[in-house]
Design goal:
The protein is mainly alpha-helical. The protein has 23 helices and two strands. A two-stranded antiparallel sheet has the order 1-2. Helix 3 runs parallel beside helix 6, helix 3 crosses helix 23 and helix 14 crosses helix 15 (347-371). The chain is globular and about 65 Å long.
């Protein structure tokens, strides 16, 4: 009891007085009083324990600071977003033009992947991209959320597909496919950006419980890596991983744990440890992510530490929405510049970022539109649970079917290709995309109140995984559902007043 009073007294001593300026502002007193009062233009919160409690009990003053501080900043951010998105569109199209160069390909033969460019049809491509560029306005007016992050990744993928669709040699109804893809993108974005689900979050952890959760994730990751190394451990170069990947064998449960821990739990732990300023332990998370490479022979574990660090830097210096756009624009622009200046010396970077990360998801959509223009739809029977209770025209996974039909390797694809085109065809694909957008809206609700940097970092890996993996698989076996739960139970009180005020502002 005595220790508790001492702790309370020490916290009270840390309270700093509010600092006021001579100017004054008018702000609404409360949401239900309907009157206006005069308040001095002060620092609208104090620091420490009592600062957080004071801010919670004075939402009117928090709103006042929001209008003073964030109003002009929002205008500048929106203007900058329009410029950045416009540049992003140009860079994306330029990257695809360089990838289609078959005179001296540095990554792969573009004809094998049906990536072409014909100057005679350039005017068609420009008109198509200009029309779809208008969809980018949604990112200017929408608030930041996890759906915003995922939505911009999908916007880039559909943008790339519409460009490729103007030049591809695959034979299907390109107008119908282009229309279907564009409408599907709009349907997904409307749900993921603007739908608010009234779902309560009844339980959150205490700060001490949150710290224990982070420790538990680290211990689980160490155990999973140790178990994975027992079954598979090979240190091979990137050019040799495909010679050994198909020979990897491990229990199904362990495979699920590997993807969940590496794509959801460890990024969440990294974001949490950074928020708690436990930087050494956050560095240990990055090291653990690298250890997944020799047991999975996947490039994603090698990319993950750099991707998380990049998201950390972007979120430190830019607002949430701007950080999302820069997270794709900067790596892609760097790849284009390096390709133009150094060409073959930077083929590895250009191939991993501009080709594998950006172009392949768009190319997969082209392949799926072509294949299912002549074959039966799956009606979601590719989901293993549904395959057991309904007849299915395909007994093999979709990526194996695409491998046999097009010889492009294990061509996994996003929800637009799998839950959309493959399941219900081009006409009903927008309905499926809207339903998938509602899943992102659920994730938005679970992360509501969390600062943008925390959401960006903890969801960074899943946003990239969703470009290449169906949503149903990402939810169940890559940890998206678990990440939503972790966001829900994360205590908002572990973040400082500035972070919490920024989270409040982002919801307006």
């Amino acid at each position: 009891m005595i220790d508790g009073w001492r702790d309370l007294a020490s916290r009270m001593r840390t309270v700093q007085p509010a600092q006021c300026e001579p100017s004054a502002i008018l702000t609404k007193a409360t949401a239900n009083q309907g009157t206006w009062r005069l308040f001095p233009a002060c620092k609208l919160y104090r620091t420490g324990y009592w600062g957080n409690r004071w801010a919670e009990r004075n939402p009117a003053l928090m709103q006042a600071k929001q209008q003073m501080v964030y109003g002009p900043r929002q205008f500048r951010e929106r203007y900058g977003l329009m410029l950045l998105i416009s540049l992003h569109i140009v860079v994306c199209c330029a990257s695809l033009i360089f990838l289609a160069d078959n005179t001296d390909p540095v990554v792969a033969d573009p004809a094998t992947f049906h990536i072409f460019f014909d100057p005679a049809r350039l005017h068609i491509a420009i008109a198509t991209i200009a029309a779809f560029a208008l969809v980018g306005v949604l990112f200017v007016i929408a608030r930041f959320s996890f759906g915003y992050f995922v939505g911009f990744c999908f916007y880039t993928m559909i943008l790339g597909y519409l460009w490729l669709n103007c030049f591809t040699d695959l034979n299907y109804d390109h107008r119908l496919a282009g229309f279907s893809a564009a409408v599907s993108a709009v349907a997904f974005l409307l749900a993921a950006l603007f739908v608010t689900l009234p779902i309560p979050r009844p339980f959150t952890l205490s700060p001490r419980g949150f710290d224990r959760l982070l420790t538990g994730i680290l211990l689980l990751a160490i155990a999973v890596i140790a178990a994975g190394a027992i079954y598979n451990f090979r240190l091979v170069g990137l050019g040799e991983i495909y010679n050994f990947r198909n020979a990897l064998e491990a229990p199904k449960l362990l495979n699920y744990l590997v993807t969940i821990v590496s794509n959801a739990l460890l990024p969440f732990a990294f974001a949490g440890l950074v928020a708690r300023r436990a930087y050494w332990r956050a560095g240990a998370v990055l090291f653990l992510l690298l250890l997944f490479y020799p047991i999975t022979l996947s490039k994603i574990p090698l990319l993950a530490p750099f991707w998380l660090l990049a998201m950390l830097l972007f979120s430190r210096f830019f607002a949430g929405r701007t950080a999302v756009v820069l997270s794709l624009l900067v790596p892609m622009l760097a790849g284009v510049i390096l390709h133009v200046v150094l060409r073959r010396q930077t083929a590895a970077y250009f191939g991993m970022v501009n080709f594998r990360m950006i172009a392949i998801p768009s190319d997969a959509l082209d392949v799926y539109y072509d294949y299912f223009s002549r074959h039966d739809f799956t009606y979601f029977c590719q989901i293993s649970v549904l395959k057991r209770i309904m007849s299915c025209p395909y007994q093999e996974p979709l990526w194996e079917i695409m491998e046999k039909a097009y010889n492009l390797g294990n061509l996994n694809a996003s929800l637009f290709a799998t839950e959309g085109v493959a399941s219900v065809g081009p006409w009903w694909a927008p309905v499926s995309a809207f339903a998938c957008g509602l899943v992102m809206a659920f994730g938005n609700r679970m992360s509501e109140g969390l600062p943008a940097p925390f959401i960006l970092i903890s969801g960074a890996m899943l946003a990239i995984v969703l470009l290449n993996v169906p949503l149903s698989i990402v939810l169940l076996t890559h940890g998206a559902a678990i990440l939503f739960l972790l966001w829900s139970v994360t205590p908002r009180t572990i973040f400082g007043p500035d972070d919490r005020l920024a989270a409040l502002q982002a919801r307006q």
